[in-house]
Prior knowledge:
By secondary structure, the chain is an alpha+beta fold. A hairpin with a 4-residue loop joins β16 (361-365) and β17 (370-375). α2 (47-62) packs across α5.
Amino acid sequence: MITFVRALLMSLLLVTWTALCGAADYHKTKVAVLDFQQQGTFSNQDVGKIVAEWFTTSLVEAGRFEVIERRLMQQILQEQKMGSSGLLDPASASRLGKLLGVKTVVTGTVQSYERTYELNVRLINVETGAIITADRVRAGSTTSLNDLVAKMSARIIRHFPLDGYVVKREADRVMIDLGRQAGVRPGMQFSVYVEGEPVRHPKTGEVLSIERVPKGLLKIESVWEKTALASVLQENPADLILAGYQVRSSQSDEVLNPVEAAKLREEERKREEAERKAQEKRDKEARKYQEKLEKEAREREEERLEALEKERKQEAERLAQAAISGLTPLTVFPAQRENLRSLAVSPDNSQLATGDDDGQIVIWDLAKGLQTETLPGHLKGAVVALEFSGDGRQLVSAGKDKRVVLWDLGRRQQLAAIELKDVPSDLHMARSGRLVAIGSKGSESWLWEVKTNRLRAIKNTDDVLAVAISPDGRLLATAGQGRQIVVWDAVNGRQLKSLSGHSGDVRSLAFVGDSRYLASASEDKLVLIWDLQRATQHQILRGHADEVIHLAVSANGQRIVSGAAKMLIAWDGMQGRELRRYRLEKGGDLVAMTPDGQTLVVARGKQLHAYRLE
């Protein structure tokens, strides 16, 4: 009789609860993640924003949260004249959350001190203005910050367990009404319980809570959109898990067996103790390292002061070395700390951009020789190429870190960045600023459509050392070790023609005047001007006794400057006639010319000079 009654109850619960759950949809918790406030010194000034982005990604990937979109949040904050970063107090965060229409706000700080990085996080309930939790984690390097975010996100998720119901039981398999939509993943564990007697206050009679009677433990095996199938890890044989029972997601130490729970908590305590000792060891090593750095800094300062007088004495000699036969320096720039590896001149002839071995980009006032701003550039390795947009408002850079970055010079910040699989060798931006050509010594070169952030690969048969986009943005030219110049349709990436004529590697390309003529400089000591409509050599510029490495062309194409070893030659770009020769006493690693054809910029090592062309 008892068995019959139990079976009848189980059937009624299954039918009733299946009907209820079938009509219900899981609603994710709505969360806002504010930019974290930075405290201390960081190599990247956007660390607070980056940490907030990592938190956003981590919470979205958990599948349990609806994270408010940053652009919408910024718009509302601007309308309300409120800041979006910093460690807000609960009242401000509560007001902010209500404006954004969320239930929970994540805010905090990221700190840097004594080679230690600390992440402080507050989780605030918008409805009550109360702090749900406040926690902190620390690491010994910036590369560990992402790990800290993942660790803290896991702690945050613990405050938002998934609650649902058992909807079906077959043998040792149980189906629950939570699935992929709610963030359920295979391997997750759920405790099973039923609500028991209410717990009342002995004096007031107020209901304080409802007793939870544990019934078992489940482990998720398969997940669908709104349901998941689990195996039974624990249950009382005399009290089977039935449809209609409630379930809640469990952390690793939330098991039903008290002995096992105690064991897991002890293991966690030991792990935390080991982490604490390891952190103390790292702190000690960091202090020793800091003391070493301070000692080395003092020694370097002493050496700098000793070298200062020597440098002053060498200034006159340096100015003499800067002279090019036939030219007088127009601007002598301060000596740089690192060797210069890239050079670009703005379209309005007023600015100069340089990139060095340390990944730093400096913007200069060309006429005054004064530094106007510095960009962090590339964190690993040299800046190998630079190019201004046609309006001079943007700058694109390529580095040995396999990254290409687009900069907004007015706001001094990154607009976009892409990662490449090979180190770039050269780049060129179309005048419109919408397209960037990127050369590589690997198997591919690329066309980057900046507006859509789309990257199109172009297969290389040989290493590409030079690229150029035509003024109208329709043609792309690439060349390098194959000695041939390939012309492509820049719109669809289709190869149009191949130009043969050089007997050495092609080191530089530039369109002359309009999109019809192309100039190429080669290690065969020649500069060739190509007629692209006829695919023929229009002019051959002979005069160099060494490999031609550099090529600069004025915007109207009337002046061309080519460079080889210690010799520069200025040409009439229309007639192919040599105008004048200039001898470099110390040679030149980099050569650029202003678009008006009036100023020549030459860099060698850490030295940078500008000259007025006659």
